[in-house]
């Protein structure tokens, strides 16, 4: 038989403290205040038509396909329709503020950091034994065995084994520095000698070096990164006190 338990605001605050997430929540509150104040200082406002478009985009992003989905989503989070509008308002202001601050800085940033956005399409097998890794490298070079066969035999992870060790596109930040240096100095279609990493000796086939292009997706990502760093810098400048 089910029973009803009453939860007070004090219960919520106490649980928040016990969860160890209170500093994270406080940081989020301060960040929201920083963004709201900066948008106001810049004269940034949302038009009514933009609110509707923003709400539609929010529902699409959260797979809220109809009114029932939206009400269920709000109910599970203890949110009201006014809260929903406030979320949309804030998201729009954040996007506009980021555009205001960094729209003319994205191109120069991309030019300066092109190396960070160069990608490499790689296949990888990690082996515990250096001698075995070198032996397999030489066997592949001499065409005694193919890389995909090595992957099938020596990769333990089932999904990665099925993909023949395919890692997809990786970037410098994704790899250990000594591995990154060799991978990005390589040509396409090149098997690299075993490289020591955190998990063992990495046998890597570089399928392609992907030169960066400033696509719409990358413009958005750089804007998000720059805006995030700006918020972090502003957070460092702020002291806070908890009110009653």
From TrEMBL:
GO terms for molecular function: peptidyl-prolyl cis-trans isomerase activity. Keywords: Isomerase, Rotamase, Signal. It catalyses: [protein]-peptidylproline (omega=180) = [protein]-peptidylproline (omega=0). InterPro entries: PPIase_dom_sf, PPIase_PpiC, PrsA_foldase, Trigger_fact/SurA_dom_sf. It is an enzyme of class 5 (isomerase). Gene3D superfamilies: 3.10.50.40. The keyword Isomerase applies. SUPFAM superfamilies: FKBP-like (SSF54534), Triger factor/SurA peptide-binding domain-like (SSF109998). Its EC number is 5.2.1.8. Transmembrane segments: none annotated. Residues 106-208 form the PpiC domain. It comes from the Bacteria. The keyword Signal applies. This is peptidylprolyl isomerase.
